[in-house]
Amino acid sequence: MRKFFLTLCLGLSLLIFPFCLITSLPAMAAVNSEMVKSEVDLQGAIDSFLTSLPKDYYTVMKIDTLKNIVKKDNAFLIDVRQPSEYASGHIPNAINIPLQTLTTHLDKIPKNRPVILYCTTGYRSALGVMSLRILGYTNIRAFPPSIQGWKAAGETLEK
C-alpha cells in the first residue's frame, strides 16, 4: 500500500511540476502561510491514513475466504478491469465496473453488505479500494490474488 501511495504521489508531482515551470518565479515566491499550513495539514492527514491501515490492508487473500464471504455474507463482487478483459472471463456473479468509471457508478455499489474488488494483478483493485474508502465506503475490500490467482487455482470462470 505504501508503494502504491508513493507511486500516486510521484504521479501527482509529475502533473504539478510542469505547472510550476510555467508559473513565474515572483509568483512562486509569494507563497503565503495559509498554503504552508494546508500542506502541513495534508501531510498530517496522509500520515494518519497510512498509520491507521489495518494489517490486512482491507484485503481478502485466500480463495476459500473469498468464497465464504460471498456465500455467508452475500458479498458483492466487482471486476474493475476493462470490459474486454471481463468478457474474456470473470469470477462467477461478479459485475463489471471499470476502475475509471467507479465514481460514475456509485449507485450500483451497495453500502449495506461486503463489496470485494478484483482485477488482473491487484493494482487496479487497490486503487479502487482507496478511492471508495476516501468516498466513505467502509465495506470495501480487495482480492489481491485477483483473476490470475483465481485461474491459477483452477477455479472456473464465467463468460
From TrEMBL:
UniProt-listed CDD domains: RHOD
Keywords noted in UniProt: Signal
PROSITE patterns hit by this protein: RHODANESE_3
InterPro entries found in the cross-reference section: GlpE_sulfurtransferase (IPR050229), Rhodanese-like_dom (IPR001763), Rhodanese-like_dom_sf (IPR036873)
Domain Rhodanese: from-to ranges: 71-159
SUPFAM superfamilies linked: Rhodanese/Cell cycle control phosphatase
Signal peptide stretch: 1-29
Gene3D superfamilies membership: Rhodanese-like domain
Coiled-coil regions listed: none
Name under which the protein is recorded: Rhodanese-like domain-containing protein
